[in-house]
Amino acid sequence: MKYKSTRGSECVSVSEALLRGLASDGGLYVPENIPGRFLDKKYLDGLSYEETAEYVLGAFMPDIPKTALADMIHRAYADTFSSSDIVPVHTVCSSFSMAEMFHGKTCAFKDLALSLFPYLLTWARNELQETRDILILTATSGDTGKAALEGFKDVPGTKIQVFYPEHGVSPLQKEQMCKQEGNNVNVVGIEGNFDDAQSALKKIFSNTEVRRRAAEAGVVFSSANSINIGRLFPQVVYYVWIWRQLVKNHVIDENDSFNMAVPTGNFGNILSAWYALQIGVPISQLICASDKNRVLADFLDSGIYDIDRPFYETESPSMDILISSNLERFLYEISRDARQIQSYMEDLRGKGRYVLPHISFQQIRQVMQGGWADERQMREAVAKVYQKYHYLMDPHTGVAFSVYEDLRKRGSIGNNIHTVIAATAHPYKFPGVTAESLGIQTAGTDYGTLRNIAAVTEIDIPDSLAGLENRPVRFTQVIPREKMEETVMDYVGRNG
């Protein structure tokens, strides 16, 4: 299978798409042809998560030999997650379930792709006989950074540099990154937001002079953001898994559909659900949940994508994004018109907005609805679900639940269709807001607050979070966003 750019005619192999991350014209790689509705229900029954991953990814990346893919998947998932199910589906009541995506090393859904991605990238490097070091450049709004750092820690032939907004992640997310172990990692805060970091890195990727200088130093750039297919398509796997778990546990019947509510920032996680729908997962409605930075919710309401608005730093920091890169992939898949996508992106750069044709907007609305929740509504949702069901959500999942409940009350989604909410992070990654939502006393430190929460809820603190407390801080650098290119090249020079 070939992968093509959303903005032009560029078409490359799976290995090239994995290694490059971003197309040379600035576009994102998408499958030349989506595999189609190939899922076999009977075959899926009884498969483990690893076997499900082999089945699904084998269709999206058929160039990878089956034995090699199986070996990579096994090394990525065996003994890596605290739950044997990898993604347990917890049915809270007859109306909704929680798909728990936070049982990996960093307690966030990014682990599910970033545990595998380093193996995929290493395979691509070997396949292309690339002898230069791979420098993974990543912008993060909180979770991607830590998951990527953990995934690429001490991987031979690779180095990783992560940029995060200094004031746009939770204190615990920051500690997870800045205390990261490994000899090939580097973490830098920026004075700006996630969009600033992401836009700066895209410019670096597209700058032929910068890439030439890096190449002369023996370094080639790649990315661990969901702009890379190696990040995106492993996420399709868990939607297939969720469906079969619902059937296995008799939550839905074999021929029933279900809704999927996803807290969304960069649009990658919900785009993966859309791809799952295309290959046969019976999703009735995709619910795109936004926080106060409601650019996606407004887009799904009007067909107008407009970033000319205030940017808010909220208590759901991984959703604090105005430029949702993966929406570009979705719009391309709806239209398959690269020239149209190029026009949208030019309008976004020049005018800060673009407008969808009516027919494209209607296509989207057939499968996807949007909504948003502010911090008060999120806190109320966290408190309500805990008090009623003794189930604890993190702020991002709280946003998704609030949006789901609002749509259900308004009759926008059927009451007779089960909804799965993507629980994308462990609530203990956000101790302050979690404690305050439940009326639990905060302490002088996040770790003290975690102990207070655990004492009340009787939910154990994950080892990966508890172990952070006594680790030394390794990275303290904070730079203006204008200095990112200089900082990247400095790291290239130090590590080339």
Condensed summary:
By secondary structure, this protein is α/β, with parallel strands linked by helices.
Main structural class? alpha/beta
Strand order of the largest sheet: 4-5-15-10-11-14
**How large is the count of helical segments?**
23
3D shape: globular
- Please tell me the total number of domains: 2
Named at the architecture level, the CATH assignment of the largest domain is 3-Layer(aba) Sandwich
Report low-confidence residues grouped into runs of 5 or more: none
Secondary structure layout plus pairing:
Layout: E1 3-5, E2 11-12, H1 14-20, E3 29-31, H2 41-44, H3 49-60, H4 66-77, E4 89-91, E5 96-100, H5 111-114, H6 117-127, E6 133-139, H7 143-152, E7 158-165, H8 171-178, E8 185-191, H9 194-206, H10 208-216, E9 219-222, H11 229-232, H12 234-248, E10 258-263, H13 268-278, E11 283-290, H14 295-302, E12 304-306, H15 327-335, H16 338-351, E13 353-355, H17 358-367, E14 368-372, H18 375-389, H19 395-409, E15 419-423, H20 431-438, H21 446-457, H22 463-466, E16 478-480, H23 484-495
Parallel strand pairs: 5-15, 6-7, 6-9, 7-8, 8-16, 10-11, 10-15, 11-14
Antiparallel strand pairs: 1-2, 1-3, 4-5, 12-13
Helix pairs in contact: 1-6, 3-4, 3-12, 12-13, 15-16, 18-19, 18-20, 20-21
